[in-house]
Structure formats: C-alpha cells, structure tokens
Amino acid sequence: RLRNSRGGIRDIPGPPSPSWLFGNLLEIILQVPYGEYEFQWQKTYGMLYRTKGCFGENRLMISDPETLKHILSHPATYIKSPQQQLVNETGLGSGSLLFVEGDAHRRIRAVMNPAFSAASIRALGPTLRKAAREISEIWEAVLDAQSSNDVLDIYPSLHATTLQAVGEGVVGYNFQADKDFAARYHNLVVIAADRSKSSVILDGVLPYIPKPVMKILLNFPPPALVTLLEFKSAIGTLAKTLIKDKMDALELGVEPEKDLISVLVGSNSQSTSKMTVEEIKDQFATITVAGEDTTANTVAWSLYELAKNPDLQTKLRAELDEAGPDDSVDYDRLPILNALIKEILRLYSTVPQTERVVAKDSILPLSEPITTSAGKVITEIPVKKGQHLIIAISSYHRLTSVWGEDAEEFKPSRWLDGNTVSAGASLGPYSNLLAFLGGSRTCIGWRFSIAEMQIIISELVRKFSFAPSQKEEVQRTFAITLVPMTADGPRLPLRVARLQ
Ligand code: HEM
I need a labelling partner for 489 at 20 to 30 A (CA). Which of 323, 325, 450, 472 fits? Predict the structure, then answer.
C-alpha cells in the first residue's frame, strides 16, 4: 500500500478523503442517488482524478476516452482486481469467461463467440418473443384483479422475464418451471443488493489477505457466500445434465436446438482449441448472473423514463403500431425504440463502473494535460504494478466533450438528429457507448441483450400504458448494477393500465 501511495499518483488532484478507513468509497458506492459526488468531481477535477480507497489507498478514477482506450486495448497490463476475481472464481468457477485471463480467455472466448453472433441472436427471435408475451399475460391477469388506481411493482416480474429469456435463449432450460432454482436465484439478487458498510470494508481488506489464508477462511463462509455457493452447485448439477444431453444429440446427428449453449457445444466440437466440459459448465452460472440482472435493470429504467415522458411513450407506441405485428418487425429499424435504449444505456449505465489493477509498471496516456498538486503539467501518468484503476463508465457517459453540453439530460432525440456520436476516441461495440465496455473483454452478450430489450419493451408498450407512482420515490442505487430503489428496497412501482 505504501508503495502505491508514493510516487506520482499522490500528486494527481482529487477530492478530499472524509475518512482514513473508508476513503471516498462511501461517497462513490453508497451515495443515493448514485453518482452525486462522482459527477461533480468530474466537473471539478476533470476526466482523470485521484480518489481514496480503504486505509488511505490511492485509486485513479478514469473517464478520459484516450486513457480508457489504452487500458481496454492492453488487457495483459490492466487485469481484473483481486476483489472482482475472488467473487468470479468462488461464485462462477475457474473456467468462467468473467474470471479467465490471457490465453485461456482468448481460447474460451473464441469458442463462445459464434454462439453470440448476429445470426445466432436473430434465430432466437421466437424464444424472446415468447418470454415477452409471458410477462404481458401475467401483468394482464394482475391488473384485471386490482383496482385501476393501484400501482404495480414491475421489478420482480421483469427479473422473472429476463431470467426466462436467458434460460430458454442461452442455456436451453425453463428456469421459471423449476421453482427451487428460481427461488435460489431470487435470493442471490437480494444478496447482491446488500449495500452495508461492512461490504465496503471487505472490498478494501480482500486484496491484502494472502491466498492460503483466504482458502482457510472460505471453509467458514458467511451466509451470503453460502447462498452463492448453493446457487453455483445447483446450476452446476443442472449444467452437467444439459451439456451431456446436447453432446449426445450432437453425436446422434439430431438437429441442434437454437439455444446458445447448443450452438457452443456444436462449435466446440469443431474447434481445434476446445473448451473442457468443466469450462462449458462454468459458463452456465456466468451467463445467468451476467445476463439476467443487467438486462432487467435496463428494461426497468426504460419503462421508468417512458412513464415520466408520456409524449415519448405515445411516439414509441405509434412507431410500433406502424411497424405491424411483432413477429414481422425488424427491430433494428425502429428509430425511437433504439434511441430510447441507447439513451438509457448512456444515462442509466447498468454497470456504472468496473475496476482494473496494473499488472506491470506502465504509462497511462492522457487526452488533456493535468496540473499536479505540485504545480507540474503532465501529459501522461506512470503507474506502478498494483495500482488500482476505476473505469468510470457512468462518468464517461456524462462527458460534455463527447456528448455535448446537454450530456446530463435524458434526451433520446440526441440519437435521432445524427450529431451525437462522437467526439473523441471510439469506444465500445455499440454507438460509442461504454455500457458494454470495450476491447477484448467487451460484453459477449451485448447483441443478445439489445435484441431482448427491443422485444420486451415493444411488447409492453404495445399492451400497457405507464405513469409514475406519486407515492414512492425511486432512486438510482449502486448495488453491483444500477438498481431502482425505494424506501422499501429494490422496487419499481408504476401505474400500469391495459391498452387492449
Ligand atoms: C444491458 C445489459 C448488459 C450490460 C450493460 C452488460 C455489461 C457488461 C460489462 C460492462 C462487462 C465487462 C465487465 C468487466 O470486464 O469488468 C460485461 C461482460 C460480460 N457480459 Fe455483459 N452486460 C449486459 C448483458 C449481458 C448478457 C445478456 C449476457 C449473456 C447472455 C452477458 C454476459 C457477459 C459475459 C459472459 C461477460 C464477460 C466477457 C469477457 O470477459 O470476455 N452480459 N458485460
């Protein structure tokens, strides 16, 4: 820690630290609404500044497009943090795409890529439409049974739908029909929403616990970890059976299913650098966890903004009416729908930040010079092995230099007038957004997620109207992903009415 506190980083300007124990972490992680401090610091200190972690550790908060581009294109130099990797390995497995680094990551990613190609995702249209129709049928039944003034907490059913979509579309399994599994998964989402000070301290302490000590500690897991390990074991058992079925079908020459794991098993059989069965198994938990919560939250925020913007809702409904029945629509050609999704990914970045640690001494380039607190003007920053970096996804999405002076406004029309994208480095796979990160660790499920959101939002806007609930305030809250939170916990209460 001392080594990291010395040198140039200490002189990079940044906000004062209110506490030696927590540094700025409570302001960054626990502040509601998310980003209140972070977005103000960006205005005061610029696109790269120093913050404090636990016990006086210096961390760099980065939204500078040039610096981010450099970090994302050098994955061997900027690796995942020990905190992230401990959770990934323990919860998802040592073969998880989220955990593996270097050659193993390249090999596994190459085998998985065909399953997530544009063609594979297009083939899932009917499966995704079925999951979307199921949610609207549930809502219709609930609304028929309640008074017209009641509000509906749409959050749990959005999670159920995205779990179903990932289940049937990606792993080829009906999770909702398996009540035991659905309950285990629900518990996991509740745990992820834990935002206690002790979880912040744990994050600060973890990197300093030697691996052998950690192994011993894992024999006495806290209740949250027990739930995670139970989920991992349940999905691991399920995965083994499903993979065996898919491999047997492949050997017998049976026409493969359309789900992405079937495609993956097929592409693996033809690949020269194969994934092991154990590695394929680890992708089940990975994809379920990485793909469900992120998409549910993005759909939730989309409906929240539609409820607040009735004009936008009317225009989107008119666009969908004109497009015709849902099974004949090319969703990529609907400008208002896609403008809404892009603007939500920008302003409600579902993964608001991620972390990296410097694996070997290196130099970070800057797009603008920085004046250090010692008065020196620098155009690059030498960083030492072990330096903690925060990739500030949400802050990048609010840079006026990239998105214009109205960067903080919710304004889907910015995507329609053709002048948004983009000043600065081109980042990310989708419209210069960093929501799915970029470089070799770009979210593998981004196409799946866009297709899923297009279909679910269209189905719901065709069938229901949305208005805000006047009773409960909903706040943007950081709980690994960006969660809609009320005084009663993660909820999204809206006034929903049937249209047909
Ligand atoms: C709105 C929806 C989504 C968002 C915003 C999102 C965001 C992200 C981000 C930021 C990362 C990079 C994390 C890091 O390296 O620190 C990531 C990685 C990943 N995502 Fe997503 N994701 C979404 C949906 C999905 C879906 C639907 C799936 C699967 C069906 C998925 C599977 C993955 C996987 C497996 C990785 C690891 C990729 C690698 O390291 O090579 N994600 N996602």
Answer: 450
pLDDT, tens digit (0-9, with 9 covering 90-100), for 452-467: 999 999 999 999 999 9
Nearest CA to ligand 1 atom 9: 436
Residue 319 burial (CB count, 10 A): 15
- Residue bearing the CA closest to ligand 1, atom 26: 291
Q: Is 54 annotated as a binding residue?
A: no
Using the Cα atoms of residue 335, residue 132, residue 468 and residue 141 in order, give the sign of their dihedral: positive
Distance CA 93, CA 172 (A): 20
238: three-class secondary structure by DSSP: helix
CA of 85 to the centre of ligand 1 (A): 15
Measured from the CA of 434, which atom of ligand 1 is nearest?
10
Q: Are 475 and 348 in contact (CB under 8 A)?
A: no
- pLDDT value of residue 1: 45
Which residue has 């903004």 as its token pair?
A: 305
CA of 159 to the centre of ligand 1 (A): 16
Q: Which of 72, 98, 443 to mutate to test the pocket of ligand 1 (most atoms within 8 A of CB)?
A: 443
Model confidence over 218-273: pLDDT tens digits? 777 777 778 888 888 888 998 999 999 988 988 888 887 878 888 888 888 887 77
Task: Give the single-character DSSP code of 398.
Answer: T
Q: How close is the Cα of 498 to the center of ligand 1, in Å?
A: 33
Domains of the chain: residue spans and CATH: 2-498 (1.10.630.10)
Which residues sit with their C-beta closer than 6 Å to ligand 1?
97-98, 109, 166, 170, 286-287, 290-291, 294-295, 298, 350-351, 354, 435-437, 441, 443-445, 448-449
The minimum-distance atom of ligand 1 relative to the CA of 298 is 1
ipTM of this complex > 0.85? yes
Tens of pLDDT, residue by residue over 472-488, are: 899 999 888 899 999 88
* C-alpha count within 13 angstroms, C-beta hemisphere, residue 209: 16
DSSP letter, residue 475: E
3-state secondary structure 335-397: HHHHHHHHHHHHHCCCCCCEEEEECCCEEEEEEEEEECCCCCEEEEEEECCCCEEEECHHHHC
